[in-house]
């Protein structure tokens, strides 16, 4: 994977508390974006719960990561939820390229007026096959992705519908997995394109008490996990096909698909 030594520069909005996971997520995003870690700045919301659009100055795009320590359903407990949603809406207004993963996906759903629910049992965990909608065939990131690609997905909360003004791109039977904001370079995934199988093993082991029912359950999930090279490649596509694309370029190629599989 080629690493660029100059622009672009991206800002990673992190929602992580432990230093180990902060560092791992930062390096994973850089790796799969095809960038040096020095090209990705960090805004950690636990450290900086209050902020405005000025945090985007000097950046060519925004990445939003996952979280096992916060919930978009509890803004009263996490004061950074509201300013984070305001920032996402601002990015849409100014057409700054955005890619949101997992927690970021749920944050975008709430920011755009959609609904997120919490699963107490039988939630998605592992590397499920991600199905594509017809609209994906016209999307800059997904048009050459095969249907049923594997991706890391571990979450207890999920969106029940695509927000108004957005197009569904990918899904599993229980879950909306990816959408794009119509007319803006803004993508989300419930799955983790920044996480591969080795990181899944490490992270799920670390947070096993959040997601599994003991060591036997954990081992069942890890043994069933697959490699996920296609989903990991989405971040490189985002950088090359959107962030580095000319204004009014490939991000506007979806036309007439806003109602597809809502």
TrEMBL record:
Q: Where is the Glutamine amidotransferase domain?
A: 77-196
- Where would one find coiled-coil regions in this protein? none
Please tell me whether the keyword Lipid metabolism is annotated for this protein: no
Q: Which Pfam families match?
A: GATase
Q: Per its UniProt entry, which superkingdom is the organism in?
A: Bacteria
Keyword annotations for this protein? Glutamine amidotransferase
Q: What is this protein called?
A: Type 1 glutamine amidotransferase
- Please tell me the species this chain comes from: Ferrimonas gelatinilytica
